[in-house]
Q: What sequence folds into this?
């Protein structure tokens, strides 16, 4: 798709599908290292997929429905965001590579995906957020869940433009907007798995002056968290401490007025690589992975009551996915259906209480 077409698509409710650019790929699954493998192992999925939540069940469970599949199987995008009522996912694993520059956009009105300007360089676990009506892409790993860089970009009109890099390289960072600032929270450092560590770093980016500054660090270093802003507070939920073998159920909120963190009711199912969205006034957490586990649990937090309850679990448990809320649906696209990064999926399912 040309840049001219991309800009036109952002301005209209219709969108062209991105399938042509990725012709020849399996529409549902692909393998990271062997292009001949086109299915996810059913026995492994059956063993690893878990659905039961320890949280009390909500009175209305809701339902999951199938939506248009991704143009190609992808995982480890890690996060997604919404711009102009469309879902944006960037980077990740795909096509037997871990350094994809892809940028796919989903239009829920048309139930179609289309291509958008690719990142200047490929990476996985790229942090994304919208600030001031612009899409930002923050850092990422350039190898498989390791070797972070500090490169940052903003989608300025028809193309990406470099902004001030992070003061130091780290990735798998949670990125959210608060009061016109971009907060980059937690993440991981390290070039090899034995030295890979979670960090408690908390930086903010001011788009007006193109500058990063430090804020109060998280109480515990984590990466692959579920993070979002609700009623002026940043919630950081779950995530891994160095590895998915040591997932956390911690839930903290950050108050920018006091530059302080405070605990909240912990996540019922400890996990990492999950989705986190605000839907009907509650924080919904879905998906994620752990040791020999891929979670389908769909658990929601009520900020007013500081309590959790469970809803209909995901039809297809996945981790390293993209999740956003648009209208009366939570859209969950891509991700790995088995533990680790070997299998990618193009599955796109949406949850609704309608």
A:
């Amino acid at each position: 798709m040309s840049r001219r077409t991309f800009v036109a698509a952002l301005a209209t409710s219709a969108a062209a599908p991105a399938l042509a650019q990725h012709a020849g790929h399996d529409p549902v699954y692909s393998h990271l290292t062997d292009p001949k493998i086109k299915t996810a192992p059913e026995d492994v999925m059956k063993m690893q997929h878990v659905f039961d939540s320890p949280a009390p069940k909500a009175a209305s469970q809701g339902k999951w429905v199938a939506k248009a599949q991704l143009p190609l199987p992808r995982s480890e995008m890690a996060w997604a965001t919404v711009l102009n009522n469309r879902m944006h996912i960037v980077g990740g694993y795909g096509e037997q590579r871990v350094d994809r520059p892809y940028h796919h956009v989903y239009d829920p009105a048309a139930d179609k995906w289309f291509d958008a300007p690719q990142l200047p360089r490929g990476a996985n676990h790229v942090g994304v957020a919208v600030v001031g009506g612009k899409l930002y892409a923050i850092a990422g790993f350039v190898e498989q869940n390791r070797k972070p860089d500090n490169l940052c970009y903003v989608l300025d009109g028809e193309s990406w433009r470099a902004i001030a890099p992070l003061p130091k390289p780290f990735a798998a960072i949670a990125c959210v907007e608060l009061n016109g600032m971009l907060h980059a929270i937690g993440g991981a450092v390290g070039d090899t798995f034995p030295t890979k560590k979670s960090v408690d770093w908390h930086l903010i980016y001011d788009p007006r002056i193109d500058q990063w500054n430090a804020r109060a660090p998280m109480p515990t270093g984590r990466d692959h968290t579920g993070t979002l802003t609700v009623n002026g507070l940043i919630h950081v939920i779950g995530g891994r401490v160095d590895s998915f073998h040591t997932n956390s159920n911690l839930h903290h909120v950050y108050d920018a007025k006091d530059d302080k963190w405070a605990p909240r009711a912990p996540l019922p199912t400890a996990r990492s690589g999950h989705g986190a969205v605000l839907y009907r006034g509650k924080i919904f957490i879905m998906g994620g992975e752990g040791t020999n586990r891929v979670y389908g649990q769909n658990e929601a937090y009520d900020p007013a009551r500081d309590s959790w309850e469970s809803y209909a679990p995901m039809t297809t448990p996945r981790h390293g996915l993209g999740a956003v809320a648009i209208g009366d649906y939570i859209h969950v696209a891509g991700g790995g259906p088995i533990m680790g990064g070997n299998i990618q999926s193009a599955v796109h399912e949406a949850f609704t209480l309608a």
About this structure: The longest helix spans residues 3-11. The helical segments are 3-11, 42-48. Confidence is low (pLDDT under 50) at residues 1-20. Residues 48-352 form a domain with the Neuraminidase fold (CATH 2.120.10.80).
